[in-house]
Amino acid sequence: MKYYIVLLLILFSSYKSFSQSPVEEELGSWFALSGNYKLSDKISVSSLILAWDYEIADNFNFILYNVGLNYKISPKVTTTLAYGYADIDSGFEKSGPHTYENRLTEQISYKHELFKLPVDHRFRVEQRFLDQPSTNVLNNRLRYRLGTKIRLNETFFLRLHNEFFVTVQTKKNEGFSENRLFTGLGINVSKSTNIQVGYLNRQIRKLDLHRILLGLYYKIDFSKNKIK
Questions:
Q1: Is 146 within 8 Å of 160 (Cβ atoms)?
Q2: Burial state string for 37-63 with b = 16 or more CB within 10 A and e = fewer than 16
Q3: pTM (2 d.p.)
Q4: What's the distance, CA 112 to chain centroid?
Q5: Contacts with 134 (C-beta within 8 Å, 6 or more apart), sequence order
Q6: DSSP class of 65
Q7: Cα separation of 50 and 32, whole Å?
Q8: What residues have CB less than 8 Å from 30, skipping those under 6 apart?
Q9: Strand (E) positions, the chain?
Q10: pLDDT tens digits for 154-201?
Q11: 206-209 long-range contacts, Cβ below 8 Å, gap at least 24?
């Protein structure tokens, strides 16, 4: 029962979309490569590469390169300042005009237990400098993610999270919201590395997009000159 309460909280924070379009009929892919490099007990550096495709490993949509500096305030609270660069192709049936993005991110993460189940919260504020074909736009975006990780045994775990986005409306930018719901199976390759495979539902601008996610996540401890 304790697990189901948290799972329901995450699921209920998502919403439904009923529109249909050709892009919604395709099952796309979402690849992630995420690293964390511990420099001291308080400080670490993180890296992230995200690649999206409208179809499975085909029809390029988006790629993001991101690097962040993390400071652990306590065992439960970590702050992050990050920079990212992205290339976005909004064309589905054929290659469309590309948008190039420079992104600044301020983040705070909080972890705790609810009924002995691990729960994680992630709050982000982003400044997105978008170089579009006709104009340059600054988008300010707020993000909140609620997640949990359910250990099945020494090797396998379940990962579930839901993230809600709000883009602040300005004269040059229409405000809009987005929701990403992920559920997947994790495999611990070692104490410092895991692979996650699962389904991600992305709802944005009345589109209901379906993606298969494959991610590799690893940690390296440079503070002791060994892999953690």
A1: no
A2: bbeeeeebbbebebbbbbeeeebbbbb
A3: 0.87
A4: 20
A5: none
A6: E
A7: 5
A8: 50, 51, 52, 53, 200, 211, 212, 213, 214
A9: 27-38, 43-55, 58-72, 77-89, 98-114, 117-131, 136-151, 156-167, 176-188, 193-204, 207-221
A10: 999 999 999 999 998 877 777 789 999 999 999 999 999 999 999 999
A11: 206/17, 206/19, 207/17, 207/19, 207/21, 207/23, 207/24, 208/16, 208/17, 208/18, 208/19, 208/24, 209/23, 209/24, 209/28
What is the DSSP annotation of 179-221?
Answer: EEEEEEEEEESSSSEEEEEEEEEEEETTEEEEEEEEEEEEEEE
Token pair of 33 as six digits:
């490569």
In the three-class reduction of DSSP (H, G, I as helix; E, B as strand; rest coil), residue 52 is classed as strand
How many CA atoms lie within 13 Å of 133's alpha carbon, on the beta-carbon side? 6
| pLDDT per residue as tens digits for the range 158-167 | 999 999 999 9
For residues 45 and 227, the answer to whether their CB atoms sit within 8 Å is: no
